[in-house]
Amino acid sequence: MRFSLLCLLFLCAPVLAQPEKIPLQADTYIGSDAYKNHYFIHEMAFYKKGPDGSFVFKDFSLGPIEKVDLINPLKIMLFYQQTNTVVFVDNRLNEVERINFNTLSAFTNIGAAGNAGNNRVWLFNLDNQQLELYDYRLERKLQTSLPIAGTLIAMASNFNYCYLLFEDTLLTYNVYGSFLSEIEVKNGTSITENDEDVWLVKENIIFRLAEPGLHSPEKPSELKKINIPEITVKQLHLTQDLLYIYDGKILHIFTHNPPKN
Q: Which domains does the chain have, with CATH numbers?
């Protein structure tokens, strides 16, 4: 009877699944795709390693890679802030296109960039502190926000929305250049986007902001803390079912299924 009771208690008790752990030597972990290929930066080169094989893209003349956008794995965007350049590579990391904003007639000093799809990129213009939606085929700005005060900390985006993290606030804009919402956030260090949710790292704690693009400025979405084991959060990335956290040496992989608000 005692044995049966112990078995019943064991079966009914909640069990926290242990994350999968993968050693990874990287300066910056970028993310992973649905096929478990991992993307990262090491010694100023961009790598893809996994079931698809091992690939690398490097052009040291462009300087360090500021950001990589994986929203389209067949056309990955690399942003080099030091040389004001965007490079697109394919799924084998072969270069397919390069945009040097220094050579364009309408010169733009870029602080951040993201892939907006359909030959468009999100750009944060440092000269006038404005978010721009730029068509690099037509070489013209499609949308421009009003000037935004403050120092940009990080930017995340998809094809519909762009999220800007400043010293004390997180702003959301849509592809029409319209301001949608503002959330007070102090000491945030990075943001990432997944399925139109924003995940924010603040003082080594992860917070989730559910669909800020669908909330009004009067009723913005609320930050909700994500409970995870004590891990140094150097970078994080999300897919539909998995949360990846890189601590500088190990890539921790958790399953997740957060409810929509």
A: 18-255 (2.120.10.30)
